[in-house]
């Protein structure tokens, strides 16, 4: 039972990892004017991704210093996911 719970948590962390990566790539594509935000599909995807990640980013943004246009909160979240997945979960579930 514990291993099944471990696998579910790992899958959820993987999904969150890819959501953050996709959001970062889309923000770069929008910044470099490769995709247009006037498209309903693009706007819907951006809004959905923002609503999924904003609750995770906001506490980090409150703590981190303001660097202007450079937002490092996705990198902090990705680093936290990596630490949780590789250093916290295995000992917690006795998989070391």
From TrEMBL:
Membrane-crossing segments per the record: 6-31, 67-88
Entry keyword Membrane: yes
Pfam families the record matches: CCB3_YggT
GO cellular component, one term: membrane
Entry keywords, A to Z: Membrane, Transmembrane, Transmembrane helix
Protein name, as recorded: YggT family protein
Source species of the chain: Sphingobium quisquiliarum P25
């Amino acid at each position: 039972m514990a291993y099944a719970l471990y696998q579910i948590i790992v899958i959820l962390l993987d999904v969150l990892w890819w959501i953050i990566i996709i959001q970062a790539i889309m923000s770069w594509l929008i910044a470099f004017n490769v995709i247009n935000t006037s498209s309903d599909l693009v706007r819907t995807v951006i809004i959905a991704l923002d609503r999924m990640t904003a609750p995770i980013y906001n506490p980090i943004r409150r703590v981190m210093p303001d660097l202007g246009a450079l937002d490092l909160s996705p990198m902090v979240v990705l680093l936290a996911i990596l630490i949780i997945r590789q250093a916290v979960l295995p000992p917690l579930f006795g998989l070391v």
